[in-house]
Amino acid sequence: MTRKQRRLSFIGAAGGVLAVAVGLVLYALTGQIVFFYTPSDIAAHPIAPGTRVRLGGLVEDGSVQHGDNGRVAFSVTDTQHQTKVTYTGLLPDLFREGQGVVAEGVYDANGMVTADNVLAKHDEKYMPPEVAAALKKQGVWEGDKQTAEKTP
Amino acid sequence: MDLSFAEIGHYSLVLALALSLLQSFVPLWGAHRLDGRLMSVGPVVAVVNFGYVALAFAALVAVHVTSDFSVANVYENSNSQIPLLFKITGVWGNHEGSILLWILILALFGALVALFSSNLPDTLRARVLSVQGWIGTAFLLFLLLTSNPFARLNPAPMEGQDLNPVLQDIGLAIHPPMLYLGYVGFSIAFSFAIAALIDGRIDAAWARWVRPWTLLAWLFLTLGIAMGSYWAYYELGWGGFWFWDPVENASFMPWLAGTALLHSAVVMEKRGALKIWTILLAILTFSLSLLGTFIVRSGVLTSVHAFASDPTRGVFILAILTAFIGGALVLFAWRAPGLKQGGIFAPISREGALVFNNLFLIAATATVLVGTLYPLALDTLTSRKISVGSPFYQLTFAPLMVPLLLAVPFGPMLAWKRGDLKGAAQRLAVAMVLSVIAVVLALFLSGAKGVLAPLAVGLGIWLIAGSVVDLTERARLFRGSLSTSFARLTGLPRSAFGSALGHAGLGLTVLGITFVSSWQIEAITSVKPGQSIPLGHYQLTYVETTNGRGPNFRAEVSRFQVTGDNGRSFTMAPSKRFFSARQSATTESALKTIWLSQIYLSLGDRSDDGSLVVRAYYKPLVTLIWLGGVVMAIGGVISLSDRRLRVGAPRKARARKPAAEPVST
């Protein structure tokens, strides 16, 4: 092999691997990403049942019902609309009624989300960013007030 | 306020900034003018600079330990009631302190280069120290202008707000310093690359100087990531060890690129080839470290790692990022074509194998980069919010890893320049047979439910067996008397053991991940006292919940009696902690290690009728995931102790082989 052929074969190999990587990324980006919705988004644009969603909002007051074996049902609200969520597992330590939450799971034909992951605030400073943005959009954001209270 | 540590610290930082500016330009100017006196300023300033940064850091530790709540940083992140350990680790458990730790480690590496590089050509050394000075200046400016850790509060509050309970763990003492030693350690490779580009010349000796520093950074990053993963595993209570969270990816990308750099530097040192590529990798690796700092510290993401979100900080880090990455790449585009290429090799050769490694590692890094940045870009451009989770990486990252891992054992078997693939395969026959046996065994034992997991087991065994074969082949075991083989083995360079351990550690991690992902047993249920949960070969009986107290928290401890089928019995006690200062709670999961496997027990809510929601896992071979990382790091340490790579003792090395120190001034 001449030096030129050698170089071409390396460039070809590199191009091949990169092409495979790009192909994999594009394929995965079309099928494996999860969109974020608020209950109002769902009300405005119906989602196909079976779609994976991240649902964000506040846990509606009085909506949390504990079932057997760690089953929980609650509603997520953005004060305009509500979406019901069922979940089996341990809720985060800071999961509370009236607090921000993100539930990730499958949207079903009954308009409910079967969550396999529920995220709440990490601590009093943390609000899932999508929820904060969605609540700001709805005009019910109180985060700035909270931080103002904390300042000595 | 008679001692005023805070003012001492603040003043030290300002002095360190002045020294960094000096370090940024004087040695560089000296190198340009070939003025030995100006160049000799570099090492002195680098060491003194480290002294002042260390003093500032000590001052911050002092205000934290003495609980001086007149300092905002202490008020917001500490409390008089927390144990001393968390008062100290709380120093970097916040934005300002963690940036100071970043700068401390940068200054430490700068001082180490100054002290252990007297065998470097003077101009290269001067330029390396100047580039370190630029980085130091940028981050000190960032700290002083946007994130002063010594800012005062007036009037001083009586009590602090407490450290985030999630961070009140021994993990905070280990994870960030290790990770930063890795992140920031790659700045040395970056500085060497920039210095070489300015110098306009580069040779194999350059790789020999850069390799130990890269190895050092890499091994700390490996440990830092492994520690972070274990911490998330036991602290977050989800039982997961890796979430493909952007913050995790931020540390994983420099690791992948750094691993590639480690391998390409070998080619450059041994064969003088891949020079330009190695320079580019050094730039990319540190760029990814900077990107990681940006992702984690700028507040573009909200997570437990993002301590505060102040837009000016984000913009400032973005400016640093753009200046350094952009500047470095422009310099590269301008100067790299002028560097002399060297060393030709056939595609099937050790060099070819290492190019293969680089190609796949960089492609994998690129997929992680896309998965990390795409949601951010989409949010910024269209304000559409998406999340990219593990399914994305299973489809992109994993397929790229498979050919790479399959190829790993072949690399060390191939000769430099022109290798013999068939011969390598023959020598690896034992490893192949073992892997096939492992696949069949795993398939049989798991009830033939799927083929992917057994194949992955085979891959792990292939990596481990391949490493063993690598060593036995070098020792020519079974091809002579046992004593000559042993003599050969002990006579091998330590870097041979280092690379074998590195690859074997990778195999262990692959095995751990496969076993946990495929064969863990999970039970989520609610129990009342006296009731049992069956979990594989174990029965977990809920005994009672009692109240306890910690220094700054109240705890509800639930005791479980665990009985194995083999009659073994022990107690596990997961708990919930309530921190009054922050009105927050954490779940402390309980772990019981049985050989390499673990039982993992985490708690949910307790309802009024006394029943408790429990999540229990049996995690087979889970500890291998992190043990593999530790083995990789041990491999790094052994390689580092290799005479040929030793960082220190330059004088001795020069005396031993005078011809091996080309002077390129």
UniProtKB/TrEMBL annotation, chain A:
Q: What functional role does this protein have?
A: Heme chaperone required for the biogenesis of c-type cytochromes. Transiently binds heme delivered by CcmC and transfers the heme to apo-cytochromes in a process facilitated by CcmF and CcmH.
Residues annotated as transmembrane: 7-29
Provenance organism: Faunimonas pinastri
Residues in the Extracellular compartment per record = 29-152
Q: SUPFAM superfamilies attached here?
A: Heme chaperone CcmE
What is the protein name given in its UniProt record? Cytochrome c-type biogenesis protein CcmE
**Family membership noted in the UniProt record:** Belongs to the CcmE/CycJ family.
Record's keyword annotation contains Ribosomal protein: no
Parts of the chain on the Cytoplasmic side = 1-7
Q: Which UniProt keywords apply?
A: Cell membrane, Cytochrome c-type biogenesis, Heme, Iron, Membrane, Metal-binding, Signal-anchor, Transmembrane, Transmembrane helix
Among the GO molecular function terms of this UniProt record, one is:
heme binding
HAMAP family with a match to the protein in the record: CcmE
Q: Which Pfam families match?
A: CcmE
Main localization is membrane
Its membrane topology, per UniProt? Single-pass type II membrane protein
> Would the keyword Heme be found if you checked this record's keyword annotation?
yes
Q: Name one GO biological process term.
A: protein-heme linkage
- Identify the domain of life: Bacteria
Q: InterPro entries recorded for this chain? A: CcmE, CcmE-like_sf, NA-bd_OB-fold
GO-annotated cellular components? plasma membrane
**Residues where heme binds:** H122, Y126
Protein's cellular compartments:
Cell membrane; Membrane
From TrEMBL, chain B:
Q: Which Pfam families match?
A: CcmF_C, Cytochrom_C_asm
List residues of the Cytochrome c-type biogenesis protein CcmF C-terminal domain.
Answer: 318-643
* Keyword set includes Cell inner membrane: yes
Membrane topology note: Multi-pass membrane protein
Origin superkingdom: Bacteria
Q: What is its main location?
A: membrane
Q: Where is this protein found?
A: Cell inner membrane
**Sequence ranges assigned to domain Cytochrome c assembly protein in this UniProt record:** 92-298
NCBIfam families assigned: nrfE, PRK10369.1
Cited function: Required for the biogenesis of c-type cytochromes. Possible subunit of a heme lyase.
Q: Indicate the family of this protein.
A: Belongs to the CcmF/CycK/Ccl1/NrfE/CcsA family.
Q: What is this protein called?
A: Cytochrome c-type biogenesis protein CcmF
